[in-house]
Design goal:
Keywords: Membrane, Transmembrane, Transmembrane helix. InterPro entries: CitT-rel, SLC13A/DASS. One of its GO terms (molecular function) is transmembrane transporter activity. It holds the Pfam family Na_sulph_symp. By secondary structure, this protein is mostly helical. Helix content is 76%, strand content 0%. Helix 2 packs across helix 20, helix 7 runs parallel beside helix 10 and helix 11 runs parallel beside helix 17. The model has no long low-confidence stretch (mean pLDDT 88).
């Protein structure tokens, strides 16, 4: 039997085994059967025997077909409910923003400018790579598109200038650049609500549990004070703990300047893309005061991008990654919502209250955040992590944490999704790209992931004492 067949069989076996185990007392058979399929979907998302979007699509299809959430009409309404979710459309629109950066060349130009003006030393190159990611991060919720699509093509060329290759002096400069790139994209992914797609998915699930939708500014007020010092520290700390053997890099700015010459003068479409992204960010930040929804802003900007030729309609229709995420997230939102619909979350809430009621609020909050963070070792997808754990953690939180502390707690909990990606070579979207570059061995990656992961967790926990 092939490896793929085994991966495909495991989720099926999980569903079948749980299906035929009697439902626990207090949980209906329909709810238990739904949970069996839900857990099979989570296992499928971790193993990925087929594309993740297909795993979610199959999950909602089977649940709807079996009528586990109601009659036929209720079932199909539930199954398709995620496709009408405004947050999912915001994420889809954000992929179009990323496409605009790529097609106009603005993303590459930003990275080259950073190298040109900051890259005279190896430490400076680290900060150039970091700031390239930072500038793009508020506008690009796909950190894979941001780090892997915009930063990587520029940054990976820098070590080659100095003959630092995976099989020839990788520590000279290539290993340092690679680690700074992945570590800083994890930090920026936590810094802004719109810097990581699962952030948006998480706040949607949180909103359904609490009745409060976290705004861009609410997120920024807590996460920026925590992440800015961490962002500034990361390239220097990497320089100290995992130092490059070459300290100076005078050739890098010259190379970047030559590449900028090849790009030519900045074009009207690049200016237009930068302007539209800025307008979108302004409305995301102040949309609540202006009476404009974040998703409305995003889809309007995408319309303008198409009408002005920044991207074409064919570009939009042919963006497989965007449609893949659209289907993937839509089905997972429905699956997560089904946990509440069939009564599983209510059941967990009652039982968790009995088990955890002896903990004081601060201890409970710290325990939940640490557990949420550490469990990421078992997930190869931040999206799967969100879908599997956020609804469960939120039912515990809304049951046991005081109402006035729920919002800051949920921001810090969801805010940990970006930085937790550093702990493994598969922890976040761009990790396999940078790991696959070959400059950092697996053993070294796990060791650095443990060190930086612990530091990032300590900073997240600091937020508990500062903001809750």
């Amino acid at each position: 039997m092939s490896k793929k067949s085994i991966k495909l069989l495991i989720p099926v076996l999980v569903a079948l085994v749980l299906w035929f185990i009697p439902a626990p007392e207090g949980l209906s058979s329909n709810a238990w059967h739904f949970l069996a399929i839900f857990l099979a979907v989570v296992v499928g998302l971790i193993l990925e025997p087929v594309p993740a979007a297909l795993v979610g699509f199959a999950g909602v299809s089977i649940v709807a077909f079996l009528g586990l959430v109601g009659n036929p009409k209720e079932s199909i309404t539930w199954a398709l409910s995620g496709f009408g979710n405004s947050v999912i459309w915001l994420i889809f629109a954000a992929f179009m923003f990323a496409l605009g950066y790529k097609k106009t060349g603005l993303g590459r130009r930003v990275s080259l400018l950073m190298v040109k003006y900051m890259g005279k030393s190896t430490l400076g190159l680290g900060y150039a790579v970091a700031f390239s990611d930072l500038i793009l991060s508020p506008f690009m919720p796909s950190n894979t598109a941001r780090s892997g699509g915009s930063v990587y093509p520029v940054a990976i060329n820098i070590p080659q200038i100095f003959n630092s290759l995976p099989d020839n002096e990788p520590r000279k400069i290539g290993s340092y650049i690679s680690w700074v790139a992945i570590a800083t994209t994890c930090v920026t992914s936590s810094m802004f609500l719109t810097a990581l797609a699962p952030n948006l998915l998480a706040i949607d699930l949180i909103g359904k549990s609490t009745g409060h939708t976290i705004t861009w500014m609410e997120w920024a007020k807590i996460m920026l004070p925590l992440m800015i010092p961490l962002f500034i520290l990361t390239p220097w700390l990497t320089y100290v703990l995992y130092p490059p053997t070459q300290k100076k890099s005078p050739e890098a700015p010259a190379w970047a300047a030559e590449e900028l010459k090849k790009l030519g003068a900045i074009t009207f479409k690049e200016y237009l893309m930068a302007g539209l992204a800025t307008v979108a960010l302004i409305f995301w930040i102040f949309g609540k005061e202006l009476g404009v929804d974040a998703t409305t802003t995003a889809i309007c900007i995408v319309s303008i991008m198409v009408l002005t030729g920044v991207i074409t309609w064919d570009d939009l229709l042919s963006d497989k990654a965007a449609f893949n995420v659209f289907i993937w997230f839509s089905t997972l939102v429905a699956m997560a919502d089904g946990l509440k619909k069939v009564g599983i979350l209510e059941y967990i809430g009652k039982n968790s209250q009995t088990m955890l009621s002896d903990l004081n609020t601060t201890s409970l909050i710290i325990a939940l955040i640490v557990l949420f963070y550490i469990l990421h070792y078992f997930f190869a997808s931040t999206t799967a992590h969100v879908t599997a754990l956020v609804p469960l953690f939120m039912v515990i939180a809304t049951t046991l944490i005081p109402v006035d502390q729920i919002v800051p707690f949920t921001i810090i909990l969801a805010g940990s999704l970006g930085v937790m990606g550093i702990i493994t070579p598969y922890g976040t979207g761009p990790s396999p790209i940078w790991y696959g570059a070959g400059y950092i061995s697996q053993a070294r990656w796990w060791a650095l992931g443990a060190i930086f992961g612990l530091l990032y967790l300590v900073v997240i926990l600091l937020g508990v004492f500062l903001f809750i």
